[in-house]
Amino acid sequence: MHTEPGDLVAALDIGGTKIAGALVDGRGRLLRRVRRATPADGDAAAVMAAVAAVLGELAAAAEWSGVRAVGIGSAGPVDASAGCVSPVNVPGWRDFPLVAEVTAASGGLPVVLVGDGVAMTAAEHWQGAARGHDNALCMVVSTGVGGGLVLGGRLHPGPTGNAGHIGHISVDLDGDRCACGGRGCVERIASGPNIARRALAEGWRPGADGDASAQAVAAAARAGDEAARASFARAARALAAGIAATATLVEVDVAVVGGGVAGAGEVLFGPLRACLREYAALSFAAGVRVVPARLGADAGLVGAAAAAAGELGLWGLPGNASGI
């Protein structure tokens, strides 16, 4: 695809609570932003109508004439090979043909779909904490745990757009059943709701405001609450085991951790780095570093644009390591 420096990508970041859109330029700047609530309880048409409304607002901007593609980062599961999505928190979308619908709504522009963890990875590799690293694992630790891979300097989404989904690596062979159907998954131990669940089970109690979130557990852990600290330590151990397994399998040299749970800071990162030294013992895996993500809430949009740009040859970004 022949491109010019001023070419733009329309980015969509689709989740269970919000549908965000932006026009992104070749330096990762968000020129226009649009946001709508996801009608998660609505039927397929209602959710798509909200996506179309976001695209419509972007298309009304003067800069739209410079848009060359649409990049989508969606909550999963996604199947980029089929152009379909089935987000867990959007029950009206099951095998929904999102790529075809967005292609039509955008007037026939090329559309590239990846999972939200892969989008975050593309963003952090292009503009964030994984920049300059040819082999990286990037993770989102929030309501769930997702991730993506950069291998050989290129985004590696895999055939369906889900490669690097570290949240569903099993790290506890006899552990609890996960919502995915597996057992002992990283997500079942390290996601925000599961950190809070375990802290409550171990004796932590919310303050007067009744806040029982992982953020509240983190605050209690910083204040020295032993049950809160133990729950974060358990989450850190699960994350470390998953990172070590990934580093052993594909030789990444950095693991970037973002998402709301990462906001706990050293309550999470301190035990995580300590546990990683315990699990990543082989010489070729022992050097993996853990660092916080840099792009925050913009990562989904920047990454959706970067994934599309790499796939379609925009902005001089390297192509993806596996076709989607």
From TrEMBL:
Entry-linked Pfam families: ROK
UniProt cross-references to Gene3D superfamilies, sorted A to Z: 3.30.420.40
SUPFAM superfamilies noted in UniProt: Actin-like ATPase domain
UniProt cross-references to InterPro entries, sorted A to Z: ATPase_NBD (IPR043129), ROK (IPR000600), ROK_cs (IPR049874)
Similarity section: Belongs to the ROK (NagC/XylR) family.
PANTHER family: N-ACETYLMANNOSAMINE KINASE, ROK (REPRESSOR, ORF, KINASE) FAMILY
Protein's UniProt name: ROK family protein
Source organism: Streptomyces luteosporeus
